[in-house]
Amino acid sequence: AYKRQTIRGCAGMTTTTLKLNLGPQHPSTHGVLRLLLELDGEKIISCEPDVGYLHRGMEKMAEKLSYIQYLPMVDRIDYLAGFFYSELLCRIVEKALEIEIPDKVRAIRVMLLELNRISSHLLWIGAFLMDLGAVSPFFYAFREREMILRYFEKISGQRMMYNYFVFGGVRRDISDLEDVEEILRILPEKLEDYEKIITENPIFIRRTVGKGFLDKKTALDYAITGVNLRASGVDFDYRNSDYLYKGFDVGTVVLDEGDSFARYKARILEIKESIKIVHQAVEYLKTAGGLEQKLINPLTLKLPEGEYYADIEAPRGIASCFVVSDGEKCPYRLKWRTGSYYSVNLLRKILKGEYLNDAIAIAGSLDIILPEVDK
Fold first, then answer.
1. b/e map of 79-112 (b: 16 or more CB within 10 Å)?
2. Alpha-carbon torsion (77, 280, 227, 243), positive or negative
3. Which pLDDT does position 3 carry in this prediction?
4. Distances from the Cα of 346 to the Cαs of 49, 342, 343, 352, in angstroms?
5. Which of 347, 352, 348 shows the shortest CA–CA distance to 364?
6. Closest by CA position to 285, among listed 136, 199, 170
7. pTM of the predicted model, to two decimals?
8. HSE of 44 in the Cβ direction (CA atoms, 13 Å)?
9. Strand (E) positions, the chain?
10. SS3 state at 260
């Protein structure tokens, strides 16, 4: 998986560079990501990401499916954060039909979205540490994530592809919150354990501090959003302007260091912030009455002719959905904007000048998931 080539340098000297394929079968590229690296010794001269190995035509398929037929599929765009993409498609339809969802539905959706964000970040922490050679944190993170997945399975029947949000509301009411309260009770203590194991670990610090530096300008130039942007000092969290989170106290986690360690630390702090938001949703739901919602009849659902757009703060950055409707039951065109796609493109920039043994740590710190890239 390599190719040597000789380039002529100054004063007639020659240097041999090596082109190396990192992936698409490498276990630490998190799916089928292929990075074509050009090396001068151990130093990375250039990086060319090659994607498309997982392409499933999710956008094209939407043109032949009604909105209700397409809804169960969108969880698969990011199988670790399916609630966010269900919310996006529901948001498009509700916006087009000018439907305002009840406060209780908003609270349920916020609670599930933030629990989904926590479960996604927990998996990332475990996988990131596994990439760096630490096996135990992988099992610890999955232990806590399992509690959340069991709750998702309890309310939706599924551990990953939930299909729980529907146009105008949710499939069924949530009355039992004891499982969520147990998760909220246990998680803060477990996060402290993670930090004792990871944050002060000298090996972890040497592998991440100062590696894969991303400054504000580069982050904005490459359209980076979410945790990766905020870990580079940019104070922007879409939840603060999202109508779904209206009435919720949402703090923004911003760090200035911009390296792989900052991206790790920002996600730990994001989990703590999500725990706080879930607490608020649970307290509201305890006193809320029954679920009163006017669901849209999916068999007669047609969006008025026009263009519709919606955003959401997903775990890997802002996710967006753009729909062009011609007034029929199926979208005329549909496009997804995902955070991972832009993070992969960023590897061209931040891997240049780094060393091969740091490439996995830097790529892992961006939290890339390939279904979001290939769609």
1. ebbbbbbbbbbbbbbbebeebebbebbbbbbbbb
2. positive
3. 52
4. 9, 6, 5, 10
5. 347
6. 170
7. 0.92
8. 26
9. 2-8, 14-22, 34-40, 43-50, 165-166, 169-170, 306-314, 317-325, 333-337
10. helix
